[in-house]
Specification:
The chain is mainly beta. The protein is built from six helices and 32 strands. A four-stranded antiparallel beta sheet has the order 1-2-3-4, with no helix packed on it.
Length: 476
């Protein structure tokens, strides 16, 4: 508790710039913008640099242990990891005195529980996998931890808390000796006042309790869930509809968006992601497979069929091709921490939108630009349909997304620089060559990867941005 109070005081002392992206766009030399603490030092004009800190799991693990989603809580003290077998594993940040001096933060195993089991839909003759699609932390109400976990059809609300295990008291050694003595004298009498009972220390056991189960509301696979800032409601989205739930009521939900046409042959787009605004409980955002992002306001209407804002880039008909609609599909979209900007990811780029400007994105970050000439090959092996997530740092200055070949791309809006990092426990050392003057110079790395040598099976899809108190990211 003392450690948590100290971390809370540190977070209250840190002040972030009000509009980091606008400041960074205004200064080409990277002098604009900054922040307090370590984040300001790393963001204002400093070169992007990240190193490996910690790894969970084994590279030789089975396919059931494959990570499907990762999620930090609001404080950064806990990390939840979901896998293909339907399990949720939670890691806890260690105190500063138990952390090695060469790393800023270290996590240890906290608990693990089975969230979902494989099911079978008898009406549709369909098997439902136990794979965890998404995890969302819910605002804490007491000493326990609360989170939502979902597979393709069912959402479960869990409470993780410490429970004291009661153990009956034991007789003291003095009383046992008195009872075990010979004869019927005074030594065998049990004292009336002092019963000789010794209370044993009650060990704490971490328990995961299912609070509620939200099921039978989606006809298609659930692709996203998002907890509201009011701490009472959340939304769940599939390909054609978005439902609004109350955390205390699992028997009913409200359908706030339905894009299903009367005839499915007339279907032109599907919902790919949906999320609530981080600060305004009445605003939500959802993206589509046609590259558009829509904002809905629940104050105007209980149904979000009519959007309040539309963010979309009109494509030039002259540049339109067979793959245009596929690569423009938005796989993920999120708000920044202050809710001022939207970060979206399609197959080739990351786009940053200003909520107050619908005409065009404030910046476009190329990620897979080198794959434009290989779209035919990617279409044949279905890699063109891969989905990647995106995220923004807690200060809104850096943006990150996954890629192929165990790589992730990091972009700094202040320095206008991007960095591609390969997730390796032991990164290879760079070989230095000597120039004519005898000085060492680093060997040049090729800017464009060799597509023929890339491993498209190794994808960095699931990732989380920096924690509120340290520059830390996690990938799966």
């Amino acid at each position: 508790r003392r450690r948590r109070r100290k971390q809370k005081k540190k977070r209250e002392q840190v002040r972030f710039p009000p509009s980091p992206v606008t400041e960074s766009m205004a200064t080409e030399d990277g002098s604009g913008g900054g922040g307090g603490g370590k984040r300001g030092a790393a963001g204002a004009g400093a070169a992007l640099s990240f190193q490996f800190v910690q790894s969970f799991g084994d590279d030789q693990s089975s396919d059931d242990d494959r990570v499907t989603c990762v999620q930090f809580d609001h404080t950064g003290d806990y990390l939840a990891v979901g896998d293909k077998a339907g399990r949720v594993c939670i890691f806890e940040a260690l105190p500063d005195d138990k952390t090695a001096s060469n790393i800023p933060i270290e996590y240890a195993f906290y608990t693990e529980f089975q969230s979902h089991e494989p099911e079978f839909d008898c009406l549709k003759s369909l098997e439902i996998e136990e794979k965890i699609n998404m995890i969302q932390w819910v605002e804490r109400r007491n000493n326990g931890l609360f989170l939502l976990a979902t597979n393709d059809k069912t959402i479960r609300f869990w409470k993780v808390h410490e429970r004291r295990v009661f153990q009956p008291p034991m007789l003291s050694e003095r009383l046992l000796q008195q009872r075990g003595g010979s004869g019927g004298g005074e030594s065998n009498r049990v004292p009336r006042i002092d019963l000789g009972l010794v209370d044993q220390e009650e060990p704490a056991m971490i328990t995961a309790t299912p609070k509620r189960v939200f099921a039978n509301a989606h006809g298609y696979h659930i692709n996203s869930i998002s907890a509201n800032s009011d701490g009472e409601t959340f939304i769940s989205a599939d390909d054609l509809r978005v439902n609004l739930w109350n955390l205390e009521i699992s028997s009913e939900s409200f359908n706030i968006l339905d894009v299903k046409p009367p005839n499915l042959e007339e279907l032109t787009e599907v919902i790919t992601s949906a999320t609530f605004h981080p600060q305004h409980c009445h605003t939500l955002m959802y993206s589509s497979s046609r590259g558009s992002i829509r904002l809905g306001d629940l104050r105007e209407s209980a149904l979000c069929d009519q959007h309040s804002k539309l963010f979309e880039i009109e494509e030039d008909p002259a540049n339109k091709s067979f793959f245009s609609e596929i690569i423009s599909s938005i796989s993920d979209a999120k708000f920044t921490a202050d809710g001022r900007y939207i970060v979206s990811r399609d197959y080739l780029t990351i786009k940053i939108w200003d909520v107050n400007m619908e005409s065009k994105p404030v910046h476009v970050i190329p990620v897979h630009e080198y794959l434009k000439s290989h779209l035919c090959d990617l279409y044949e092996n279905d890699c063109i349909f891969d989905k990647f997530e995106c995220a923004a740092s807690s200060d809104g200055l850096k943006f990150v997304s996954g890629s192929y070949n165990n790589n992730f791309v990091l972009y700094d809006s202040v320095t206008k620089s991007s960095l591609t990092v390969e997730c390796l426990k032991d990164p290879p050392r760079r070989k230095h060559r000597k120039d004519k003057k005898g000085k060492k110079k680093k060997s040049k790395q090729p800017e464009t990867p060799n597509v023929n040598l890339m491993d498209f099976g190794k994808k960095k899809k699931s990732k989380q941005p920096e924690t509120p108190n340290v520059n830390l990211m996690d990938f799966g």
